Amino acid sequence: MGKGDKKTKRGKINRGTFGARRPRIKKRVRPETKIDIEKKGTVKP
Question: Residue ranges under compositional bias (Basic and acidic residues) (predicted)?
Fold first, then answer.
């Protein structure tokens, strides 16, 4: 159980892989990036 073990977190870090023991951290989308303040909606007459 250590660096050579495929199933442990330390082994995943050593190999540079991901899995159930070391899932990838997903980037969260910030609300500021979704809404553009610069863009203004056009008003229909």
Answer: 30-45
